[in-house]
TrEMBL record:
<dbReference type="InterPro" id="IPR045263">
    <property type="entry name" value="GLUT"/>
</dbReference>
<dbReference type="InterPro" id="IPR005828">
    <property type="entry name" value="MFS_sugar_transport-like"/>
</dbReference>
<feature type="transmembrane region" description="Helical">
    <location>
        <begin position="112"/>
        <end position="132"/>
    </location>
</feature>
<feature type="transmembrane region" description="Helical">
    <location>
        <begin position="287"/>
        <end position="310"/>
    </location>
</feature>
<dbReference type="Pfam" id="PF00083">
    <property type="entry name" value="Sugar_tr"/>
</dbReference>
<dbReference type="InterPro" id="IPR036259">
    <property type="entry name" value="MFS_trans_sf"/>
</dbReference>
<feature type="transmembrane region" description="Helical">
    <location>
        <begin position="350"/>
        <end position="372"/>
    </location>
</feature>
<dbReference type="GO" id="GO:0005903">
    <property type="term" value="C:brush border"/>
</dbReference>
<feature type="transmembrane region" description="Helical">
    <location>
        <begin position="378"/>
        <end position="396"/>
    </location>
</feature>
<dbReference type="GO" id="GO:0005886">
    <property type="term" value="C:plasma membrane"/>
</dbReference>
<protein>
    <submittedName>
        <fullName>Solute carrier family 2 member 2</fullName>
    </submittedName>
</protein>
<feature type="transmembrane region" description="Helical">
    <location>
        <begin position="417"/>
        <end position="440"/>
    </location>
</feature>
<dbReference type="InterPro" id="IPR005829">
    <property type="entry name" value="Sugar_transporter_CS"/>
</dbReference>
<keyword id="KW-0813">Transport</keyword>
<comment type="similarity">
    <text>Belongs to the major facilitator superfamily. Sugar transporter (TC 2.A.1.1) family.</text>
</comment>
<feature type="domain" description="Major facilitator superfamily (MFS) profile">
    <location>
        <begin position="14"/>
        <end position="471"/>
    </location>
</feature>
<keyword id="KW-0812">Transmembrane</keyword>
Length: 509
C-alpha cells in the first residue's frame, strides 16, 4: 500500500481511544432502562411512599417491583422521569460548548479534561445509596449528559481531522458503532441476574464512568489533530510531526499543502462563532444539510421503536421480551459494522438514501402489522420483522453518517461551531421525541408509524435533492460543491466574498 495511506498502529490507538467516549455515551443511553422498576423501588423507599406490603411479598427485587408496578406513587414517577430526561437536558446545554472546548487547548486535551465530569457522575450514581438515591442519580445523570453532549461533538471532530481521506467514512462510523456497542453492553449486564438487581444496580450505573478512566490513561499517547495544530495554531512543524505519527514515514507535502490552502481560507474568517454561522449566507446550505441530517436521525422514529418493541414482542407471544429487545441491540451492532464496511465504497449519500427509504417501507409494514395482528396471528411476525429491518436500515446510514458528515461539510474555521449546532439539534430533537412520544402514541395508536413514514419520505426526498456525496473528497472539494450550487443564483459571484469579508470584520466573528 502507498505510504501515508495505510492504517498505522498509532492511528488505530487514537481512534480506539477517542471512541471510548462514544462507548460511554451509548452505555449511558441504555443503562437506565433495564433496572427501572428496581430503581423506582429505592426512590419510593427514600421518599417514604413505597407500599410496605410490596416489600414483604418477596425478597426478589424484580418480582417485587413488577408486583408493585401499578402502585407506583406519582412522586416516584416524577423523579424517575427526571432521571431519564435530565440526561438529554445536560447534552443540549453542553453541545454549545463543543467548539470552545475543542479549540481552547486542542481536541486531545479537551477530551482529557472533560473526563473529570464522567468520573464524578459515575461516583455520584455508584454511591447513591449513601444518601438520597433519587437526588444523587439525577445529579449524576445530569453531569453525565453534560459530558456526553461534549464527547458526541469532540469525538467525530477529532476522528474526522486525523483520518486519511480513504478511510474517513469508515473511521467516522466507529463513533456510532461504539454507541450501539455501549447500548448493547448496558442491556446485557442490566439483566436482573447480573447487575440489574436490588443489590448491584448502583454499580451498574457507576460503570457508565469506567471508560473515562481507561481513556484518560490512553489519551496522552495520542497525537493532536494536525489540522488543529496547523490551521488554528499555525504550528507547521508540530503538524508535520503529528502526520508522521499518524501515517508513518511518507511524503507529507500534499497533506500540508491542503492544510495550507484551508488555512488561507480560514484566515479570511479567523473565527466563526455560532451566531456568525447562523447569520452567514456563505454557510447556509451546508448548515441546512447538516441540521436536516441530524433531524432525520432523531425524527425517523428509531427511539419510538425502542419504546414500543417490548410491547410488540409481548403481543407476539414472546415470553421474555427483554431478550428480544437485546436482540434488537445486537442487530444495531451488526448493521453498524456493515455500514463501516460500506461507507467508503458505496458513499454517504447512497447509504443514507437506502437507509431512510428502507425505514419508510418498514414503518408502513409495522403499521399494517400492528393493526391486523389481533385478527391474523401471523401479522405479529410481520411487526417483529419490520422492527428488526427498521433498526438494520437505520444503522446502515441514518444512524452513523450524520455524526461525522458535519465534520466533512465544513472547513476548519466554521467546523467547531457547525458541530456544536448539529449536536444541539440532535440532543434537542431527541429530548422532544422522548417527552412527546407517549402522548402521540396515545393519540394515534398503531398509526403513530404512519407519521414517521411521512417524515422519512420527506427526509429521503431532501437527501436525494440536496445532500452531496462527500466520499473520497478533500474538505476543499466538498466546500467547492456547495459554492457551485450557490453560484447558480444570479449575480452571486461576488456575494460570497462580500459575506466572508463581512464575517472577518464583524466583532462577534
Amino acid at each position: 500500500m502507498e505510504p501515508g495511506k495505510e492504517l498505522t498502529a498509532t492511528l488505530a490507538l487514537a481512534v480506539f481511544t477517542a471512541v471510548l467516549g462514544s462507548l460511554q455515551y451509548g452505555y449511558s443511553l441504555g443503562v437506565i432502562n433495564a433496572p427501572q422498576r428496581v430503581i423506582e423501588r429505592h426512590y419510593g423507599r427514600s421518599l417514604g411512599v413505597w407500599p410496605q406490603e410490596a416489600d414483604r411479598m418477596s425478597p426478589n427485587a424484580s418480582r417485587t417491583a413488577d408486583t408493585a408496578q401499578e402502585q407506583v406513587h406519582p412522586t416516584v414517577i416524577m423523579y424517575w422521569s427526571l432521571s431519564v430526561a435530565i440526561f438529554s437536558v445536560g447534552g443540549v446545554l453542553s453541545s454549545f460548548l463543543v467548539g470552545f472546548v475543542g479549540d481552547f487547548r486542542g481536541r486531545v486535551k479537551g477530551m482529557l479534561a472533560i473526563n473529570v465530569l464522567a468520573v464524578v457522575a459515575g461516583l455520584l450514581m455508584g454511591l447513591c445509596k449513601m444518601w438520597k438515591p433519587h437526588l444523587m442519580v439525577i445529579a449524576g445523570r445530569a453531569i453525565m449528559g453534560f459530558y456526553c453532549g461534549l464527547t458526541s461533538g469532540l469525538v467525530p471532530m477529532y476522528i474526522g481531522e486525523i483520518a486519511p481521506k480513504a478511510y474517513r467514512g469508515a473511521l467516522g462510523t466507529l463513533h456510532q458503532l461504539a454507541i450501539v456497542v455501549g447500548i448493547l453492553i448496558s442491556q446485557v449486564i442490566g439483566l436482573d441476574f447480573i447487575l440489574g438487581n436490588d443489590a448491584m444496580w448502583p454499580l451498574l450505573l457507576a460503570l457508565s464512568g469506567a471508560p473515562a478512566v481507561l481513556q484518560s490513561l490512553l489519551l496522552p499517547l495520542c497525537p493532536e489533530s494536525p489540522r488543529y495544530l496547523y490551521i488554528l495554531l499555525g504550528k507547521e512543524c508540530e503538524a508535520q510531526e503529528s502526520l508522521y505519527r499518524l501515517k508513518g514515514a511518507y511524503d507529507a507535502s500534499a497533506d500540508l499543502d491542503e492544510m495550507r490552502r484551508e488555512k488561507e481560507e480560514a484566515d479570511k474568517v479567523p473565527r466563526v462563532s455560532i451566531s456568525s454561522l447562523i447569520c452567514s449566507s456563505a454557510y447556509r446550505r451546508p448548515l441546512f444539510v447538516a441540521l436536516a441530517m441530524h433531524l432525520s436521525q432523531q425524527l425517523s422514529g428509531i427511539n419510538a421503536i425502542f419504546y414500543y418493541s417490548t410491547a410488540i414482542f409481548s403481543q407476539a407471544g414472546v415470553s421474555q421480551p427483554v431478550y428480544a429487545t437485546i436482540g434488537v441491540g445486537a442487530i444495531n451492532t451488526v448493521f453498524t459494522l456493515v455500514s463501516v464496511a460500506l461507507v467508503d465504497r458505496a458513499g454517504r449519500r447512497t447509504l443514507t438514501l437506502a437507509g431512510l427509504g428502507g425505514m419508510c417501507f418498514c414503518a408502513v409494514a409495522m403499521t399494517i402489522g400492528l393493526k391486523l395482528q389481533s385478527s391474523y396471528d401471523w401479522m405479529s411476525y410481520v411487526s417483529m420483522s419490520a422492527i428488526f429491518l427498521f433498526v438494520a436500515f437505520f444503522e446502515i446510514g441514518p444512524g452513523p453518517i450524520p455524526w461525522f458528515i458535519v465534520a466533512e461539510l465544513f472547513s476548519q474555521g466554521p467546523r467547531p461551531a457547525a458541530i456544536a449546532l448539529a449536536g444541539c439539534c440532535n440532543w434537542t430533537s431527541n429530548f422532544i421525541v422522548g417527552m412527546t412520544f407517549s402522548y402521540i402514541q396515545n393519540w394515534l395508536g398503531a398509526y403513530v408509524f404512519v407519521l414517521f413514514a411521512g417524515l422519512l419520505f420527506g427526509f429521503t426526498a431532501f437527501t436525494y435533492l440536496r445532500v452531496p456525496e462527500t466520499k473520497g473528497k478533500s474538505f476543499e472539494e466538498i466546500a467547492e460543491l456547495f459554492r457551485k450550487g450557490v453560484k447558480k443564483a444570479p449575480a452571486n459571484g461576488k456575494s460570497d466574498d462580500v459575506e466572508l469579508q463581512r464575517l472577518k470584520t464583524a466583532t462577534h466573528a
